[in-house]
């Protein structure tokens, strides 16, 4: 597989009404996306049964509130 460089600014889209997810690459087992979340917007609470999320904030700041998640979570204490 060759080198793949993606300039996020070329793909990221935004909306005044709601956060926007743009898929950059997807396979049967993984997906790479960019979210544009403007001040006051939220990403809908959701879960992935066989995958996880990695969030990187490129500008501004964000708040992740996993304590509000309504399903069991694995932590170092609970394994």
The helicity comes to under 10%
- Describe the biggest sheet? 2 strands, antiparallel
Order of adjacent strands in the largest pleated sheet: 1-2
What's the β-strand tally? Answer: 2
Question: What structural class is derived from the secondary structure elements?
Answer: mainly beta
Which value, in Å, is the CA radius of gyration?
Answer: 15 Å
Poorly predicted ranges (pLDDT <50, ≥5 residues)?
none
Order of helices and strands: EE
What's the tally of helices?
Answer: 0
Apparent shape: globular
What is the strand content? 15-25%
Overall mean confidence score, pLDDT: 80
Distance between the termini: 36 Å
Keyphrases for this structure?
two-stranded antiparallel sheet, 79 residues, globular, mainly beta
């Amino acid at each position: 597989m060759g080198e793949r460089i993606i300039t996020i600014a070329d793909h990221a889209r935004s909306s005044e009404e709601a956060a926007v997810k743009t898929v950059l690459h997807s396979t049967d087992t993984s997906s790479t996306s960019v979210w544009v979340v403007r001040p006051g917007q939220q990403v809908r609470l959701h879960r992935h049964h066989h995958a996880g999320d990695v969030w990187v904030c490129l500008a501004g700041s964000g708040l992740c509130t996993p304590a509000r998640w309504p399903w069991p979570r694995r932590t170092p204490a609970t394994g």
